[in-house]
Amino acid sequence: MDELLKIECETIVNWNKEEPFAIVYTRDPDVMKRLDQLCTRYPELYALTKETRFDKYYQIPKGYVRFHNPAQNSQKSREDASRRMKEINKAKWNAKK
């Protein structure tokens, strides 16, 4: 078995209240690539702690694990933000004249 099925490419984040870090277990090559890059760029924050042929374990600050409000990412929210930025940019442009 050389390659995992997509259903087998899971990622699990585990933390407890005692420790200041979270453990990320992943079998997803895309997640591994991203976390490997973060380990290289920020070795004081991200660490690869264990690795096998198919999976890896990382230690990251648990404050970096985020849960987002779906309303923040809605189409309406994006359109409203875009409109506000256009108004701000227009006001700046007019102020320069």
Which SSEs are present, and which pair or pack?
Elements: E1 11-14, E2 21-26, H1 29-41, E3 47-51, E4 56-61, H2 75-96
Antiparallel strand pairs: 1-2, 2-4, 3-4
Largest sheet: 4 strands, antiparallel
Helix content: 25-40%
* Helix and strand pattern: EEHEEH
Average of the residue pLDDT scores: 90
Estimate the strand proportion.
15-25%
Spans of 5+ residues with little confidence (pLDDT < 50)?
none
Structural class: alpha+beta
Q: Can you tell me the number of structural domains?
A: 2
Given the C-alpha coordinates, what overall shape results?
A: elongated
Strand order of the largest sheet: 1-2-4-3
Number of strands: 4
Oligomer: single chain
| Terminal CA distance | 67 Å
What can you tell me about this protein's structure?
The chain is an alpha+beta fold and 97 residues long. The chain has 2 domains: 1-66; 69-97. Helix content is 36%, strand content 22%. It has helices at residues 29-41, 75-96, and strands spanning 11-14, 21-26, 47-51, 56-61. Strands 1-2-4-3 form a 4-stranded antiparallel sheet, with helices on one face. Strand 1 and strand 2 (21-26) form a beta hairpin. The longest helix has 22 residues, at 75-96. The mean pLDDT is 90.
Feature tags:
22% strand; single chain; 2 helices; alpha+beta; 97 residues; 4-stranded antiparallel sheet; elongated
Short description:
The protein has helices spanning 29-41, 75-96; strands at residues 11-14, 21-26, 47-51, 56-61. It has 97 residues and is an alpha+beta fold.
